[in-house]
Amino acid sequence: MTEERTVVPLLEPRDGIPPVVEDAASLARVVEAFGAGTGPVAVDAERASGYRYGNRAYLVQLRRAGAGSALIDPIACPDLSGLDEAVSGAEIVLHAASQDLACLLEVGFRPRDMFDTELAGRLLGYERVGLGTMVETVLGLRLEKGHSAADWSTRPLPEDWLRYAALDVEVLVELRDVLHDELVESGKLEWAREEFAAVLNTPPPVPRSDPWRRTSGIHKVRNMRALAIVRELWTMRDRIARESDLAPGRVLPDSAIVTAALEVPRTKKALTEISAFTGRSARRHMSDWLAAVSRARGLPESQLPQPSTPGDGPPPANRWADRDPAAAKRLAAARAVVAALADEHRMPTENLLQPDAVRRLTWEPPEEVTDDTVTARLRGLGAREWQLSLTAHPLAKALSRLETKGEL
To answer: What are the coiled-coil residue ranges (predicted)?
Structure first.
């Protein structure tokens, strides 16, 4: 019988909860300490997603050997460029880095070299890669994760939240060290380095020209006049949310926007009969909502939004069999290849090769399918060199086999 591993609760930071850095003098001392520290720097950030407008950081946590831990209030200290410069030569350790890099960049902190413990866990085949689970599985320590969805814009921050935040970076470097050794042993370290660099070098997303089209439930809206109501209500909500620094969904839920577009209320009374408009914040702006609906109702036909146009990518895969049966066969073959390789190398298929790259390759394959043309096509779609070395030849072989058999 296998002996169960003892899991030790991690209840307190080893040096206690550090005071929150809220002024220039305190920040200067942190900068000096971390600049003089050694080794990697563990970093985490807490946001107020679902509470505040945008995804800015409301607390930044760091830990480094020789410097200890620090908790920085980036609202009181919005410029961390001095700290960034002080640790510019160090490896920055993050968990799920893509979630934190943007808000860190907003305050002037941009890693040059990075280790992402979540991404390392994926490449190593860990089934669950949340920070708490990884710390427990790899280090035998249990983190309390009860405040991950808290409103971190709260001031002052409660002591138990600060304890939680400090513990998030307490053993992050230790986790990094074990995962680093496992990457070396499995021959995946260079793969991980390519992935970390790709995350660091990913450009910020281009703002959508029609962000209102992402309203949840908009697929129920079938005509252009109703789409205009969605657009006007979404735009009004966004303005109010930005001015109030509230998450848009706290001002007015998407369900209210869609229902109003379908029912076209003409009076405040009609609005109040829509249950989603009965929330306290929504009631406060009844005149604004009614004005938005009225504007949409009064627009000339020429100013109504058109149905969304297809993007530049392939259609949803469930439509391929009808739209292009040959492409559907190519996609099925390619997915089978990627799934087998992912299983062989013990990682999720989406980490072995991006699903969008697989779809685009099989929807519009090279005119002549060879190892070189498939490699070039995948490289142009963002595949990394380690991914190409594993997938390009098997994919080219599978696609060529379909052509040779005349199945296309």
So the answer is: none
Choices 3.30.70.260, 3.90.1720.10, 1.10.150.80, 1.10.760.10: CATH for 317-404: 1.10.150.80
Could you give the percent of the chain with pLDDT greater than 90? 90
* pLDDT-derived band at 2, boundaries 50, 70, 90: very low
Work out the pLDDT band at 150, boundaries 50, 70, 90.
very high
| pLDDT given for residue 1 in this prediction | 35
Confidence at 274, pLDDT banded by 50, 70, 90: very high
Q: What does the H/E/C string look like for 228-244? A: HHHHHHHHHHHHHHHHH
Query: pTM of the predicted model, to two decimals?
Result: 0.92
Q: Do the two domains 8-201 and 317-404 of this chain adopt the same fold?
A: no
Q: Report whether pLDDT(215) > 60.
A: yes
- Structural domain boundaries in the chain: 8-201, 211-303, 317-404
* CA atoms of 195 and 97, how far apart (whole Å): 11
Mean pLDDT of 314-320: 92
CATH T-level assignment (fold) for domain 211-303: DNA polymerase; domain 1 (1.10.150)
| 131 or 279, which is more confident | 131
Residue 3 pLDDT exceeds 60? no
